[in-house]
Amino acid sequence: MSESETGLRARLVEVGVDLVTREGAQALTLREIARRAGVSHGAPRRYFPTHLELLSAIARRGFAELAERATAVTGDGTASARTQLAELSRCYLEFGLGNRGMYELMFRHDLLESGHLGLRDTSLPLFGRLVDLVGRARPDMDARLVAGALWANLHGLVQLWSWGSLQLASGEAEFTPLLRATLVAHLGPEAAV
After folding, report:
1. Alpha helices (runs of H) in 75-118, residue ranges in sequence order
2. What SS3 state is found at 50?
3. Residues 6+ apart with CB under 8 A from 97
4. Could you tell me if 78 and 123 are in contact, meaning their C-beta atoms sit under 8 angstroms apart?
5. Which of 43, 104, 125, 176 has the most CB within a 10 Å radius?
6. Which residues fall within 8 angstroms of residue 145, CB to CB, at 6 or more apart?
7. Is the dihedral of CA 103, 107, 109, 112 positive or negative?
């Protein structure tokens, strides 16, 4: 691919990222991305033969950003596994609540070609980090199952909080007490220091 072709491909992804951020996943049509990129409606097909491939490339950017944030909050890895899990979980919730459109796209595997364009290479290491930390925090448990349940719970917190349901049901004004309860439910009570 020439530099100008690489530039247009990158611009289509950038436009898609901006569009999903501002208007949500439902706005990500090839025609709208092309219009906003200033190219013909058929131009995206030259770089992304299917709509799913373009959506996957956009979602990959979201996973990369989430991975970058996760690395920043877990630091050098010297904090306890439980502390790192708490920070990673908070990071996940903040990302999901602050990036609703991208978050929705990232986890809609029915809309994405997860094995194509290396999307799984970006998403699976995040889950692997969660499994590793759960295994270190609770070596007596099946880390993969507990991590899966924790992830599902965190995902549910993002969804229900964004809809306003959890605030109404719990009476909480912010999600920290619910996050603490989630961690206790999956990891047990925190050891007294």
Report:
1. 81-98, 100-106
2. coil
3. 158, 161, 162, 175
4. no
5. 104
6. none
7. positive
